Amino acid sequence: MSQETWKSLQLPLDLDRKITMESANNQASSTVGCVRNLRVTVGGNITLLLQVHIVVECPFRLLLGRPFLTLLNAISYDNIDGDLTLQLTCPNTGIRVEVPTRPWHPTPRQSGTSPVIPTASNHEDF
């Protein structure tokens, strides 16, 4: 998660949980800390608690990678029009949702609803 997004959500941060990440250009940098057990809702019907590391500078608000896709048993569907849809399955309930993806643009996100919504009000610390 970007530091800007973390600040806007006013989430508690565990400064003792940092990791070193390697970017695509082989540069290594450390995260600021970790938001523990962030409640994230995907596709409106799947709710998960994620361990989210905070990055100072990045071109995204929240990056969900391979562990996220593996946890949700993601299946991708390439559509003839060039769009891509992910089918995600909740590991706890078996509920399935389909989430359309969007092209990546290195500009601030436009307003509107997002298929993945982290919320500060639902944060739980286990």
Question: What attributes does this structure have?
Answer:
126 residues; mainly beta; three-stranded antiparallel beta sheet; 2 helices; 8 strands; 10% helix; globular; disordered C terminus; Peptidase_aspartic_dom_sf
How would you summarize what this structure contains?
The chain has 126 residues and is mainly β. The protein has helices at residues 3-9, 66-71; strands at residues 20-22, 28-30, 33-42, 46-54, 75-78, 84-89, 96-100, 116-118.
The H/E string reads HEEEEHEEEE
Radius of gyration equals 15 Å
Strands, count: 8
Low-confidence stretches: 109-113, 121-126
Largest sheet: 3 strands, antiparallel
Kindly state the percentage of residues in helix. Answer: 10-25%
Number of helical stretches of at least 4 residues: 2
Tell me the strand order in the biggest sheet: 4-3-8
**Overall structural domain count:** 1
Strand residue percentage: 25-35%
Distance between the termini: 20 Å
Structural class computed from helices and strand pairing: mainly beta
Mean of residue pLDDT values: 84
Principal-axes shape call? globular
Structure description:
The chain has helices at residues 3-9, 66-71, and strands spanning 20-22, 28-30, 33-42, 46-54, 75-78, 84-89, 96-100, 116-118. The protein is mainly beta and 126 residues long. It has one domain (3-118). Strands 4-3-8 form a three-stranded antiparallel sheet, with no helix packed on it. A hairpin with a 5-residue loop joins strand 5 and strand 6 (84-89). The longest helix is centred in the first third of the chain and has 7 residues, at 3-9. Residues 109-113 and 121-126 have low confidence and may be disordered. Residues 108-126 have a biased composition (Polar residues). InterPro entries: Peptidase_aspartic_dom_sf (IPR021109). Residues 99-126 are annotated as: Disordered.
